[in-house]
Amino acid sequence: MTAYLSDVVALTRKDLLVELRSRDTVPAMLLFVVGGLVVFHFALVEDVSRLASAGMLWIALLFTALLALVRSFVAEREEAVIDGLLLAPCDRSAIWLAKTLSVVAFLALAELVALPAFALFYEPVTWELVAGVALANIGIAAVGTLLGAMAAAARARELLLPLLFMPLAIPLIVGGVGATLAEDPARYLGFLALYDLIFAILSWASFEYVVTE
Amino acid sequence: MIRARGVGRRFGEKRVLAGVDLDVGAGALLLVTGPNGAGKTTLLRLIAGLIVPTSGELEVAAGRARIGFLAHEPLVYRELTPLENLELYGRLYRVRERRERIGMLLERFGLWDARHEQTSALSRGMLQRLALCRTLLHDPELLLFDEPFTALDAAGSELLLDELAADAARTIVVASHQPERLGDRPTSRLALAPA
After folding, report:
1. Contact B92 A7 (CB under 8 A)
2. How far is CA A145 from the centre of its chain?
3. Is A143 in contact with A65 (CB distance < 8 Å)?
4. Quick check: A142 and A182 in contact, CB under 8 A?
5. How is chain A split into domains, by residue range?
6. A89 interfaces chain B, CB cutoff of 8 Å
7. Which residues lie closer than 8 Å to B166 by C-beta, 6 or more apart?
8. Would you say residue A27 has pLDDT above 90?
9. Three-state DSSP class for B189?
């Protein structure tokens, strides 16, 4: 267990360091999410309903997450470094867990900017919204990282990933919007937590089969 | 160490390797030759366990932890420094006395002064030296070299040849277009033809 966690820490540190040096993903996410919220603000008529503004926020967050997911295995793919990681005697699920943690970190950074922007243009940010976003991040990263690894092996990876990811993200949008607006947000937050648990276990267990033959 | 019987590999409809029989004992040095497209890289990837045969049987006595694979690509992150790359692999391979081993390899392959430079700034030859450090880091029993002389200068080639002779107990498979550079070191040879 200690060795497994040590591998996860080493791999996560590597992912964060690669992003810190390349600055390929997070700046693009920040620009995209803020740009999206600004465009929505000017595109729609005044007095946007709470339901519409919550929906726009979740759409912006989902597409921003796609940017992170599409790029999640770029460094491994471009130099075939994934072969080096697969040859190492560590548990291959550690690669998935580390990548998931780094995607969660990138999403959290984007939301640190997106949520204040949402408050500025639309509605105040509530604790239910923050909790919903935090839980959705885990689900997005868990499922998206697995699908990102699958898509990385394909030629049309930039097309394949959204096609695979969008249907699986619908429950996250339902849970997220529900947690933001419903009178009983606990139900939706519980739904998001259950989604995270189920899909995290499935993704963790199936990653090895996805990256090997 | 390696036993293959009728090993073949297809990628979709394309047959890349067919009917390879092989017996490589511990301590042997096998030279694999053949024109482009003969399946040399595929054979090494099969032995490394990165892909599986679509026909035949392949047994490799060494597990992942005991295999060192020098591939076409250096398998290192361009955004990290040589030291950070080797640190990462050293942790994943649970190399004992990791820092000392990394320092020794960087010194031996002439990368000590470049250890803090971003790998993307290294020349192709230095990248190949770094790839050699990565391959040898965990002191593997089975070494798989795919065109190891690529981009190496005379000094780098000498270091590689020294390494091939360094441990008689090591099993080594070299796929190369330049068999003359290995001299009389190979104990067996396999000439592949396009399948």
Report:
1. yes
2. 8
3. no
4. no
5. 2-211
6. yes
7. none
8. yes
9. strand
